[in-house]
Write a structure and sequence with these properties.
Blueprint (H helix, E strand, L loop, with lengths): L10 E5 L2 H11 L3 E4 L11 E7 L3 E7 L5 E4 L5 E9 L2 E5 L2 E5 L3 E5 L5 E4 L6 E8 H12 L12 E3 L3 H17 L11 H15 L5 H5 L9 H12 L6 H8 L3 H11 L4 H18 L5 H7 L5 H12 L3 H5 L1
Antiparallel strand pairs: 1-3, 2-5, 3-4, 4-11, 6-9, 6-11, 7-8, 7-10, 9-12
Helix pairs in contact: 2-4, 2-7, 3-4, 6-7
């Protein structure tokens, strides 16, 4: 683990005092009661809270100066994933007490008991809060219909192998991008990354809809591709995800992918990329803007990948088409 705390560009509090730390914690997560031991062992390092906070999500790093209990109060309409950046701590999630440490995270569901406790000295934890509506909208897209009961994740999240390890790699990538000035802070860029984190969580961590996500049955295939293509043609300039296309087509992501493979022999993501490239090619030939302007207007946010895909498809760079 790196010695440097993550999210340093979003520092909210560095303090030896409990009050400022608690106030910022309440603001970006929830109002909470902080309980300290009678004789706390104070670290020489101050308490640290770094966080980027938006309406639908918070990504933060929390390192208290001493062991404490953090007990959220009131209504908590969000899901949480807590994983250790360094050290370890206890995380009560519902009736399960998870020891959060290297390779093991805790997932907290809305409305269930939630407490962080027994922090090893110097422990820092990354806490990702995702609004209930935000996660459930992605679940709706994956299922192809609205869920009929509240989504409930299993509390212990294993991050050492398989899908859990992939989720952790994705989370660390997002944090690393936030730690340096770049495109991720441009308008419309961060939200799709966090949406991908939510979709990855739904696929990686067991919950009460996991079996339904793996079930290939669904509505008839008639019209699925047509509705998906209409969605792509209407929304290709947006930061569109496969879950969005599936939701517009009225099917699950798996159903959509199977249908595209049958009809086109490619994935819906590849079809979307190819459609965007065709639109960009037409716009460049017509001289409808610079390479950057055309790429962004066609839904490409990474110019290097756009240029590489464009050259692979058309045999020349975008700048050569533009002349």
């Amino acid at each position: 683990m790196t010695a440097q705390p993550p999210l340093r560009r979003f520092q909210l509090c560095v303090s030896d005092e409990l009050g400022p730390f608690a106030a910022q914690l309440d603001r970006v997560y929830y109002p909470s009661r902080l309980r300290m031991p009678v004789r706390p062992q104070l670290s020489r390092s101050p308490s640290v809270l770094n966080a980027i906070h938006r309406r639908d999500f918070t990504i933060g790093y929390v390192r208290p100066r001493t062991d404490m209990q953090v007990v959220p109060e009131g209504d908590r309409p969000a899901y949480h994933v807590n994983f250790a950046w360094n050290g370890s701590l206890g995380a009560l999630s519902g009736e399960r007490d998870v020891r959060v440490r290297d390779g093991v995270a805790a997932v907290h569901n809305p409305g269930e008991r939630h407490m962080l406790h027994h922090w090893q000295p110097g422990t820092g934890v990354v806490g990702i809060k995702l609004a209930s509506e935000f996660v459930e909208a992605e679940l709706t897209g994956l299922l192809g219909r609205a869920p009929t009961e509240p989504l409930r994740f299993s509390p212990e999240f294993l991050l050492t192998e398989g899908l859990g390890a992939s989720w952790l790699t994705l989370a660390r990538f997002v944090i690393a991008e936030l730690d340096r000035p770049g495109l991720i802070e441009a308008p419309g860029m961060l939200q799709p990354y966090v949406r991908t984190l939510a979709v990855a969580l739904l696929n990686a961590q067991p919950h009460n809809y996991s079996d339904q996500l793996r079930d290939p049955s669904g509505p008839p295939r008639t019209g699925i591709v047509r509705r998906a293509q209409e969605s792509i043609e209407r929304r290709y300039a947006e930061p569109l995800l496969v879950t969005d296309i599936a939701r517009d087509a009225g099917v699950s992501v798996r159903r959509l992918q199977e249908t595209f493979a049958e009809v086109h022999g490619i994935s819906p993501k590849t079809y979307l990329r190819d459609y965007r490239l065709e639109q960009a090619h037409r716009a460049l030939r017509a001289g409808q803007g610079s390479v950057t302007e055309v790429a962004q207007a066609c839904g490409f946010n990474h110019l290097g990948r756009f240029a590489a895909s464009y050259r692979e498809r058309f045999g020349e760079l975008p700048s050569q088409t533009l002349g």
